[in-house]
Specification:
disordered C terminus, mainly alpha
């Protein structure tokens, strides 16, 4: 990575900056909701609505962002998302009522859903193969930095309870993103797709290391992209119905949905709410949440350093073991220990430790790995549209969790709720073990070529082997057509 040119680093930074906005706007509500509830007198249902308004917008944003990214390009869509972020943040800060706040959060959600789709797409398509995992993880890194920034702002403003300023500050990085993307290039894969090979070659020159191998030279990469394009003539929606695309779509949807159903955003959105229910005061809950945010960033840094060495699938499995363990202990402690009266009671301490254990396990594995793998497993010609389907369902699952959590917590208590999320984690483990392929060290074109090979030979690339590629597939079969004479 040290051999990358300076301009390449700039491209990766601004490409990932959309993740920071995603993180800030999703994280800031965790502290703000405590004060919004007091100001507007929100019921548990309306608390969920304020949080989930963003998620409904994100579902719609993701649904339209996929086809739009295939038509307009990845770069233009990031710029549109930046403008939408700004409008939504200022609207939320000025909201005169709970209904207006839900509407403003919906607008922010349109941008969040678009960014969640297009930022990992942009980074994956522009990064060299040997560091694609690390570069793709920059999106998650910026997300958790944004979440931590939100937690810091919440802690600074906790004494004043100024939730309007908490929400409005999101406009600052969104303006920086919009200005920065003016000087950023489109991805080489999109440029080749639209017949702009000269521009694609210039972008690849910027981001390719000086000592890159022959397989990673700009000419060779353009050749591979062109070969894949020739195999996939036809509309994206038609291609989504093709049998060779199905295994990739199943993996993408499964990873996107399970990432939410295991309960991560009960931590991101509701840690202060959970902690106040076990004896913490509002301000101490927000300060404890800051510790959660620091752990989130620290373990994401660890993930970025190991993802291209350890591999995607082992990290997913290891992370689920940690998350299921944390949720199970939390659920059992909530049921078996006496209800706490203060933050120093055993149940309160166990709750904080288990929440921290969950976030450590998630941040080091599922947080970055899922956003790296979604664009990796999906074919180029349908990548935007197919990611739109996966991310739409991702936000649907997020909405379901976020809208129901405060109601379930109020009705059932924390024990049954967290044990339920632990059971979903077990299902996710079985899914990853059986279906998810390993993509470490393979170019996007190689992964896609294997989908064609398996379909051509009438093979199924899911269950059992857990790989798209056949174990018997030769390197010659996966080579670009121009190298086979």
């Amino acid at each position: 990575m040290d051999a990358l040119q300076v301009n390449g680093r700039k491209i990766f930074f601004f490409g990932a900056l959309g993740g920071l906005l995603f993180g800030y706007d999703t994280g800031v509500i965790s502290g703000a909701i405590l004060f919004i509830t007091d100001d507007f007198g929100l019921s548990p249902f309306m608390q969920g609505a304020v949080v989930a308004g963003l998620l409904l917008g994100a579902m719609l944003g993701a649904a339209f962002a996929g086809p739009m990214s295939d038509r307009l390009g990845r770069r233009r869509l990031i710029m549109i998302a930046a403008v939408t972020f700004t409008v939504g943040a200022l609207g939320a800060a000025a909201a005169p009522s709970a209904g207006a706040l839900v509407a403003a959060r919906f607008v922010i959600g349109l941008a969040v859903g678009s960014a969640a789709l297009v930022v990992p797409l942009y980074l994956s398509e522009i990064a060299p193969t040997e560091i694609r995992g690390a570069i793709g993880s920059l999106n998650q890194m910026m997300i958790v930095v944004g979440i931590l920034a939100a937690f810091i702002v919440n802690a600074i403003l906790a004494s004043s309870g100024d939730w309007r300023l908490m929400l409005g500050l999101a406009a600052v990085p969104s303006v920086i993103l919009f200005v920065g993307m003016f000087s950023m290039p489109e991805t080489p894969r999109f440029l080749v797709k639209t017949g702009e090979e000269k521009e694609a070659r210039e972008v690849l020159d910027e981001v390719t290391a000086d000592d890159a191998s022959g397989a990673e030279t700009p000419e060779r990469k353009i050749e591979e992209i062109r070969d894949v394009e020739e195999q996939e003539e036809g509309g994206a929606l038609r291609l989504l119905r093709e049998s060779w695309v199905r295994p990739a779509l199943v993996v993408a949807i499964g990873l996107a949905v399970f990432q939410q159903l295991i309960g991560i955003n009960t931590i991101i959105y509701y840690t202060p709410t959970t902690l106040t229910s076990v004896g913490f005061g509002p301000e101490s809950a927000i300060y404890a949440n800051l510790v959660i945010g620091v752990l989130n960033v620290a373990l994401t840094v660890v993930a970025i350093r190991i993802i291209d060495r350890v591999g995607r699938k082992p990290m997913l499995l290891f992370g689920l073991v940690g998350m299921v363990t944390s949720l199970t202990v939390l659920g059992l402690a909530s049921e078996l220990l006496a209800k706490p009266d203060s933050a120093s009671d055993p149940a309160a301490i166990v709750t904080l430790i288990c929440l921290a254990g969950f976030i450590v396990s998630f941040a080091a594995t599922w947080g970055p790995v899922v956003w790296v793998m979604l664009p990796e497993v999906l074919p180029l010609s349908v990548r935007g549209t197919a990611m739109g389907v996966a991310v739409f369902l991702h936000w649907g699952a997020n909405f379901l969790v976020s809208q129901t959590f405060p109601v379930m917590l109020d009705s059932w208590g924390p024990g049954p709720v967290f044990l339920g999320y632990a059971f979903i984690g077990v299902l996710a483990f079985l899914f990853v073990k059986a279906v998810v392929p390993e993509t470490k060290g393979r170019s996007l074109e190689e992964i896609e070529a294997d989908l064609h090979i398996n379909d051509r030979d009438g093979e199924t690339a899911t269950a059992g082997a857990g790989r798209f590629e056949r174990s018997t597939a030769s390197e010659e079969e996966r080579a670009p057509s121009s190298t086979r004479r």
